[in-house]
């Protein structure tokens, strides 16, 4: 059984080094778990948004581990659903390239041209990320 989980969190401190350490761990651990997904790190607002897809037990265990990571707080579940197929199967952990985030795309799903997952419905955040995947705005490298 496949599930998709999306959450937002606030980084205690966020820089390129931390992001690349997280991506490195994700790309090491996630393939054997059968977990795929994407991570968006917004440096300005110090917000993370992550999507995890995979088996229910694997995604649940990984989410619980990530939620206890002291490098972020205010972990809020944005969306959780059983799925028939993955949207983010190409990435053990892809990185949303904020530099390529088109303000018009943000305005399509949000009242402001800034990414604020805490103020957006989970469905809208998920639709935004699915569109990013479809428009090649997700990179494989940290
Ligand atoms: P180690 O990397 O050796 O870490 C051991 C412990 O120390 C962990 O509890 C870790 O949280 C903590 N730790 C490590 N480095 C630091 C540091 N610099 N400062 C403070 N504490 C530290 N892991 C995945 O496997 N897959 C993912 O998709 C994934 N996504 C993540 C997304 C976010 C936003 C964050 C913040 C973390 C994510 N992680 C992910 C990391 C995850 O939370 C665990 O830290 C990691 O899986 C543990 O790896 P490890 O067992 O090799 O332990």
Overview of the molecule:
- There is one protein chain.
- The chain is an alpha+beta fold.
- It is 35% helix and 30% strand.
- The chain is built from four helices and six strands, in the order βαββαββααβ.
- The protein has helices at residues 16-33, 56-67, 103-109, 122-134, and strands at residues 2-11, 36-42, 47-55, 72-83, 94-96, 138-139.
- A six-stranded mixed β-sheet has the order 4-1-3-2-5-6, with helices on both faces.
- Strand 2 and strand 3 (47-55) form a beta hairpin.
- Helix 3 (103-109) runs antiparallel to helix 4 (122-134).
- The protein is globular.
- The model has no long low-confidence stretch (mean pLDDT 92).
- The structure holds flavin-adenine dinucleotide.
Give a nutshell description of this structure.
The protein has 142 residues and is α+β, with helices and mostly antiparallel strands. The chain has helices at residues 16-33, 56-67, 103-109, 122-134; strands spanning 2-11, 36-42, 47-55, 72-83, 94-96, 138-139.
